Amino acid sequence: MTKRVLMFPGQGSQKLGMAGDLKESVTALTKQLDFDIVDIMAHDEAKLSLTEYTQPAIVSHSAALIERFKGDFDYTIGHSLGEYAALVASGVIRAEDAVQIVAKRGQLMATAFPKGGGSMAAVLGLDIKEVEALCQEISTEDAVIEPANINCPGQIVVSGHQSKIDELVKNGKSLGAKRVLPLNVSGPFHSSMMKVIETEFSEFLDGFEFKDAKVAVVQNVSVAPETDAATIKRQLIEQLYSPVRFEQSVQHLIDAGVTEFVEIGPGKVLGGLVKKISRDVTITSIETIEDLEGWNH
């Protein structure tokens, strides 16, 4: 029997004109925000690339598609930010609440560090053990660099103090990497440096209702199917400063018998990563109402 997972993209999947056919739904989902995300999606590429706007844009796009999705699924998964859309699909949080939560998350992440305080870079051509060893070698007591996103074989993102990111970008090839590419992000996401926003984000989350999942969500932190509301909530907080273990999560799903991966939301980033992890699964991308109608039938 076919097992299916719904997967939801994270930051980096946004693009101008996204959710153009979902304006009504997105407007309804984002009415609690104090900015017009629909207008930003349509007209303001510069603003859309800012973390505090990117996060509600992507989650509202995915959530608007979830509302129309017809079909069974056995698991959900999200890449970092995408985990919030996964929780909507799994019945853990309301879509409107997810949008409010990620707007706050984006704001906290964007303002946690002054410009130039910390950043991220993609390391190509090394495995996780090699990247971990490299990070340990470069890190010092007062400036760290750590694995942040384990995306697929040969593609790992690191995060940390700006000086260490610059050092790795400059010396990456001589340290064994094929390439090290600096990322255009506003902070050292998914590193221990992000613990500075833990308390404020945790207190904000306490204002929302979390229910046990109707469909298990494979969380980035544990790489395990979770259904308990308290566990899921705790790991959302831990996710801020823990690596996104996407490759391990996909492998876990494949080992559990999943053969169909359905990406819901803007872009096809996750489908591309899954292809690099396994060639033996089916991948579908649902970005628009037309994609969804084609799939639903």
Automatic annotation (TrEMBL):
<dbReference type="GO" id="GO:0004314">
    <property type="term" value="F:[acyl-carrier-protein] S-malonyltransferase activity"/>
</dbReference>
<keyword id="KW-0012">Acyltransferase</keyword>
<keyword id="KW-0808">Transferase</keyword>
<feature type="active site">
    <location>
        <position position="190"/>
    </location>
</feature>
<dbReference type="InterPro" id="IPR050858">
    <property type="entry name" value="Mal-CoA-ACP_Trans/PKS_FabD"/>
</dbReference>
<dbReference type="InterPro" id="IPR014043">
    <property type="entry name" value="Acyl_transferase_dom"/>
</dbReference>
<dbReference type="GO" id="GO:0005829">
    <property type="term" value="C:cytosol"/>
</dbReference>
<feature type="domain" description="Malonyl-CoA:ACP transacylase (MAT)">
    <location>
        <begin position="7"/>
        <end position="290"/>
    </location>
</feature>
<protein>
    <recommendedName>
        <fullName>Malonyl CoA-acyl carrier protein transacylase</fullName>
        <ecNumber>2.3.1.39</ecNumber>
    </recommendedName>
</protein>
<comment type="pathway">
    <text>Lipid metabolism; fatty acid biosynthesis.</text>
</comment>
<keyword id="KW-0275">Fatty acid biosynthesis</keyword>
<dbReference type="InterPro" id="IPR024925">
    <property type="entry name" value="Malonyl_CoA-ACP_transAc"/>
</dbReference>
<dbReference type="InterPro" id="IPR016035">
    <property type="entry name" value="Acyl_Trfase/lysoPLipase"/>
</dbReference>
<keyword id="KW-0443">Lipid metabolism</keyword>
<feature type="active site">
    <location>
        <position position="80"/>
    </location>
</feature>
<dbReference type="InterPro" id="IPR001227">
    <property type="entry name" value="Ac_transferase_dom_sf"/>
</dbReference>
<dbReference type="Pfam" id="PF00698">
    <property type="entry name" value="Acyl_transf_1"/>
</dbReference>
<keyword id="KW-0444">Lipid biosynthesis</keyword>
<dbReference type="InterPro" id="IPR004410">
    <property type="entry name" value="Malonyl_CoA-ACP_transAc_FabD"/>
</dbReference>
<keyword id="KW-0276">Fatty acid metabolism</keyword>
<dbReference type="InterPro" id="IPR016036">
    <property type="entry name" value="Malonyl_transacylase_ACP-bd"/>
</dbReference>
<dbReference type="GO" id="GO:0006633">
    <property type="term" value="P:fatty acid biosynthetic process"/>
</dbReference>
<comment type="similarity">
    <text>Belongs to the fabD family.</text>
</comment>
